[in-house]
C-alpha cells in the first residue's frame, strides 16, 4: 500500500485528516528525540481504533499510541514512517459507578479530570503518579506508580478490566467490575505495563475507593541518607499505613524548595545539618485518629534518629508534595542529562545508595535523587554530558539494582530510552519468552516496534 | 521414547521412583473423576522440575502439577499416560523477610504452615481461601481468593515474584521483593491463575503485612437475600473496610450451624424470620478503634434493614467462619452435585440471585448458596442428578453472570470441570489469543492439556 493509499484508508476509518502536527511525535524523555510520524489519526471510537490497527497490520506500518505525551522513556516516539494513534478525542469519563466503586474511562481522560469527577461522589482513584495532566491510557501503558503506591499500590492494582483493540483487528473485553476472577489468563494484567506493544486500550474499568477526608504531612530531617533509608522499613512495619513515604536528599530538597519558593519553617541550624529528609503523609477517617497517628509517627521517627519531625501546615504540605512531583522538571531545568527510576527491595536502599555513590564517583558523574522510599523506587538525576560515559553509568546503576534483587524501572517503563540496557541485562530466556508473547498478540509486529524488545 | 525409558529418565532426574500412589491423580472437584497418572515425580529442587519439563516436552508427555489436591475444578487430574509433578517435598518456607515484608516459599508450603511462620514475626499473609491445608502453589495456579478478598485482594495481589520452570526447560525469575515495576511484560501475573498450563511455579515471593491484633465479627440476620445484597455496596462504601463480608442464605446457615453444632445466640423468633445473613468481620489497630467501628457498622446494618446485629463472642465467631469455610464439604455431604463460584459486579447481586432462582425453577433444580458478597463472588451448590439438565443449568447460570458483566469463576478456576462452558461462552477472539499465549510458553503443548483451553 502506498503512503497516500494508507492515508486515504485512515481518513476513511476516522473521518479526519492524517496530517501530523508538531506535537504528535515526542514525550518528556530527556534522551529520545521526537520524530514526526507519517500519519496521525484521532479516533473517536474503539471500533475506529481496531480498524486502524487492522489496516496498519495489513500495510505493515508501525503504530504508536499517544496520550498526553508526559512519558519519560520515549515510548510515545513513533517509528519512521509510522502512524500515531492520538487518544485526545477519546477523553470521556463514561461512568462513575458508586455501587461497585469503579470508574469507566476512555484512554484520553487525564488524572486531573478523573480526580475532579470522582471527588463529586466522595470517591478517589488513589494512584498518584504526580503529573496530573497525564492520561489514563498512558498510565496503563507504563503501569504508572507514584507517591501513594506504598499504601495503595500502582496502576496495575487498580485496573479491573479493559476494552482493547488487538493488532489483528479484534476488540476484546477483559476483566470487569470485579476484583477477582479465575477464568482464563489475565489479559488485563498482561496489557498493563506493555508500553503500547501488545494492544491499544480503548476503555478501562478502574477501581475507586472512598475518599478519606483527613490528611497530615510530617517532614523529618535526618543526618544522612543511610539513616533515612534504614528508618523506612520500620515506618512501613509500624502498621500506621502511611499514604506517602518519600525520601528527598538535601541537595534535591534545596533545589525544589528554592524553585517553589517554599518556606517549611525548618530552623537554619537543622537545615544545615540535614543531608536527607523523609516525608510521611498519613490519612485518617476521623481527625482524632489522624492526630493519634501523627503523634505515633513523630515519636517513631524520633526513635529512628530523625533530628526533628515537623507537621506541615496544609498549604506548605501541598506545596511540598507538588514541588516533589515537579522534581523531574527541576532536575531538567538544572541540566540533568538523564533521569532514571530503578526499583529495589526497600530494605536494600542503604546498600543501593552506597553503590550509586561509588558508581557516580568512579565515572566523575554527579547523581542526586529522591524517591518513593516505601517502595524502594529510587529516582536519580544523572548529570553527565558524555553519552558513552553516561551509558556506562546507567548500565552499572541498573546492574547494581538487579544484583540487589531489583529491576531497571519502577514506573517510567523501558521505552526506547532503556531498551538497550534492558536487552543487555535481562535474562535471555525471559526476553525470548516476551518476544513470543509479543508475536502472539502482534504477528505483523506493528505495535511500537523498537520499544521494550 | 518408551514409557519405561521415560520412567528411567525421570528417576535419573529426581532420584526417586515414579510409581504413582492412589492419591496422586484427583482433587476435590465433584464432577471430574480422578485418574492415575503413568508417572509421578516428587522433585526436591527447581532444577529438577525444569529438567522434568524438558524431558516431558521432548517425549511429548503431558504434565500436571499437584499441590495438596484441594482444588475444585479438576485441574489436578492428569491426562491419560501423563506425569504428575507432586510438590510435597518442595515445602519449605525459605525466608520471612521482616524488613521487606515478604515471605519466600516453595510451592508445597500450606497456608497453615505459612500462617504459623508469619505469626512468629507479627506479620500475616492475608489471603484466606478457607482450606488451610491448600498449598501456595495451588493457590497461585488458581488465583485463590476467599473471604478476606473484599479488603485484602486475592492471591494475585500478593504474589510479587516467582521462580518458574518453563516447558522449554528454562528456569526464570519474575518480579521480586517489590510491589512496582515497569520493566517488561508482567510474567508473574500471567502465570498466576493459569492453572498449571503455562509454567510450573518453583518458588514465590509473597507480600505480607503487619498482623492486626483486634478483630470482631458481626452477624446480621435479614428478612431476605435481596435485602442483604442491597446492603453490601453500602457497607463497602462506608469506608469501614470490613475484612470479611459474607452472605449466607437461611438454608445454608441452618446446614452449617447444624453440622458444626454451633450456637450463635440468635433468638428463635429472629432465626425463623431470617432468610439470609450477612457476616461482617472488622479489624482494628486498637481495641478502642475496633469498638467504634463495630458500633458504626451495627448502626449502618440496622439502617439498611437488618433485623438485628449480633457481635459474636470470639469462640463462636471463629467457629462460624470455620463452618463457612467448610460450606463446600457441608454441601457435598448434603448431596450437592456440583458447586460453582461465579463472579459478578457486587451491585448486580440482587439481579443475579433473581435470575438464579428463575433458572433453578425452570429446570426443577435445587440451588442454595453463600458467597463473598463484597466481591460479588457467589458460591452455588447445585442439586440436580441428571447430567444433561445440570449442564444446561450451569450453562445458563454462567451465561447470566456474564450477561451481568461477570465471569464464570471467581476463584476456583476453569480446570477440566468448566472448560466446555468456558469455550462455549467466552469471546472466540480471546480464546484464540489465549491459545497463542499458551503456545508461546508451551510449544510442545505438554502442560495440563485439556485444562482451561
From TrEMBL, chains A, B:
Span of domain FAD-binding PCMH-type? 33-211
Q: Which SUPFAM superfamilies match?
A: FAD-binding/transporter-associated domain-like, FAD-linked oxidases, C-terminal domain
- Domain of life assignment: Bacteria
Q: Which InterPro entries match?
A: FAD-bd_oxidored_4_C, FAD-bd_PCMH, FAD-bd_PCMH-like_sf, FAD-bd_PCMH_sub2, FAD-linked_Oxase-like_C, FAD-linked_OxidoTrans_Type4, Oxid_FAD_bind_N, Vanillyl_alc_oxidase_C-sub2
Sorted alphabetically, the keyword list is: FAD, Flavoprotein, Oxidoreductase
Q: Which GO terms describe its molecular function?
A: FAD binding; oxidoreductase activity
Cofactor(s) named in the record: FAD
Q: What is this protein called?
A: FAD-binding oxidoreductase
Species in which this protein is naturally found: Actinokineospora bangkokensis
Amino acid at each position: 500500500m502506498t503512503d497516500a493509499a494508507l492515508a486515504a484508508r485512515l481518513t476513511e476509518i476516522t473521518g479526519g485528516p492524517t496530517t501530523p502536527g508538531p506535537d504528535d511525535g515526542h514525550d518528556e524523555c530527556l534522551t529520545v528525540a521526537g520524530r514526526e510520524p507519517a500519519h496521525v489519526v484521532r479516533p473517536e471510537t474503539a471500533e475506529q481504533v481496531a480498524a486502524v490497527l487492522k489496516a496498519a497490520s495489513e500495510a505493515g506500518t508501525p503504530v504508536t499510541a499517544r496520550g498526553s505525551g508526559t512519558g519519560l522513556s520515549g515510548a510515545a516516539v513513533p517509528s519512521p514512517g509510522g502512524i500515531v494513534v492520538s487518544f485526545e478525542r477519546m477523553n470521556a469519563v463514561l461512568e462513575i459507578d458508586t455501587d461497585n466503586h469503579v470508574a469507566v474511562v476512555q484512554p484520553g481522560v487525564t488524572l486531573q479530570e478523573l480526580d475532579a469527577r470522582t471527588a463529586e461522589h466522595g470517591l478517589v482513584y488513589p494512584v498518584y503518579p504526580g503529573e496530573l495532566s497525564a492520561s489514563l491510557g498512558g498510565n496503563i501503558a507504563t503501569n504508572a506508580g507514584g507517591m501513594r503506591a506504598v499504601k495503595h499500590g500502582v496502576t496495575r492494582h487498580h485496573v479491573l478490566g479493559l476494552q482493547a483493540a488487538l493488532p489483528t483487528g479484534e476488540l476484546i473485553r477483559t476483566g470487569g467490575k470485579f476484583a477477582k476472577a479465575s477464568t482464563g489468563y489475565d489479559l488485563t494484567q498482561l496489557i498493563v505495563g506493555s508500553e503500547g506493544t501488545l494492544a491499544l486500550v480503548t476503555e478501562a474499568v478502574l477501581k475507586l475507593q472512598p475518599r478519606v477526608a483527613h490528611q497530615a504531612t510530617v517532614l523529618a530531617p535526618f543526618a544522612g541518607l543511610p539513616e533515612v533509608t534504614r528508618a523506612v522499613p520500620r515506618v512501613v512495619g509500624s502498621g500506621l499505613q502511611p499514604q506517602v513515604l518519600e525520601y528527598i536528599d538535601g541537595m534535591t530538597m534545596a533545589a525544589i524548595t528554592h524553585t517553589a519558593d517554599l518556606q517549611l519553617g525548618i530552623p537554619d541550624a537543622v537545615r544545615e545539618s540535614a543531608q536527607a529528609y523523609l516525608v510521611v503523609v498519613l490519612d485518617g477517617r476521623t481527625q482524632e485518629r489522624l492526630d493519634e497517628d501523627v503523634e505515633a509517627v513523630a515519636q517513631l521517627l524520633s526513635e529512628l534518629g530523625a533530628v526533628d519531625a515537623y507537621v506541615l501546615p496544609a498549604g506548605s504540605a501541598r506545596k511540598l508534595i507538588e514541588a516533589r512531583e515537579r522534581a523531574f522538571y527541576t532536575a531538567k531545568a538544572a541540566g540533568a542529562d538523564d533521569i532514571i527510576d530503578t526499583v529495589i527491595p526497600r530494605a536494600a536502599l542503604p546498600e543501593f545508595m552506597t553503590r550509586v555513590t561509588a558508581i557516580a564517583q568512579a565515572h566523575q558523574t554527579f547523581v542526586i535523587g529522591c524517591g518513593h522510599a516505601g517502595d524502594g523506587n529510587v529516582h536519580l538525576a544523572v548529570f553527565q554530558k558524555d553519552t558513552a560515559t553516561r551509558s556506562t553509568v546507567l548500565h552499572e546503576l541498573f546492574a547494581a539494582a538487579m544484583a540487589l534483587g531489583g529491576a531497571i524501572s519502577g514506573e517510567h517503563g523501558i521505552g526506547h530510552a532503556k531498551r538497550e540496557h534492558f536487552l543487555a541485562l535481562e535474562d535471555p530466556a525471559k526476553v525470548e519468552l516476551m518476544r513470543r508473547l509479543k508475536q502472539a498478540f502482534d504477528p505483523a509486529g506493528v505495535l511500537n516496534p523498537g520499544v521494550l524488545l
